[in-house]
Amino acid sequence: MKRISLLLFLVTFAFGDVTILKDKVSNGRCFLLKSDKSGYVAFSGKRYKFFPTVLDTSHAYYALVPVNYYTKPHSDKLVAVTFEDGKKRYKSFRVKIVDGGYKSEKLRVNPSKAHFSKEAKIRIARESKEAKKIYNTITSEALWSEPFIYPLNSKITSKFGTKRLFNGTLKSYHSGTDFRAKTGTPLVSANDGKVVLVKNRFFAGNSVVVNHGQGIYLGYYHMSKFKVKKGDFVKQGQVLGLAGATGRVTGPHLHLSARVWGVQVDPMQLIELLNQI
Asked: Are strands 176-180 and 156-158 parallel, antiparallel or unpaired?
């Protein structure tokens, strides 16, 4: 599987020993900060820990700050708190959340996937609760040590954030990135990690979720067949399953999903950032 090679020209904003790569991001994406010292980032009423860097030798720590898709455009304050000689040091950044300018699309799916029965609603709620418990579990250590790769090399057929109208009535947004894949195409893990979910789900169909550590999860959806089981430790490039058309789909493909600190984010931007830490 081909590695992702990224050459990014980003304006950085540094204050003392803390750097923020960009002071402006779209809804559904992440801020990346780097620091020479441990601590945390305070933003929008929550704290995000500075974890030890994995790939970058120029800084000792990094923090990813996710922005919820439904966040409206606005200016806000982000505060980096680091520890030195037993004292807290504060660095403030003025940041902007901008509209992602996501496109819209109309899709036709099986009516049972657009208008839910009572039983379906119960199942959806149960699966949502299970997923939240998984995504809100933070593993402090990184489980990877190499740059992330894509789960397959194929055309992206639908980007993250696209506004969707199912059967003319059900509104939502595309919560991941879709890769073209025929049924039976092998899907590999983007990096080392622990398999924390292997299950058929209402929307996502046959799903595999991998915990990469430090609050980072990637999900691989709509599979036709599983090749791993819950609890497995997988290596980068290991086959997780085969592409399919299970769940709420219009045809076979891979839907790649990403979570940071429990927040759903753009997997392509996340991979781009992870390969800088």
From this structure: antiparallel
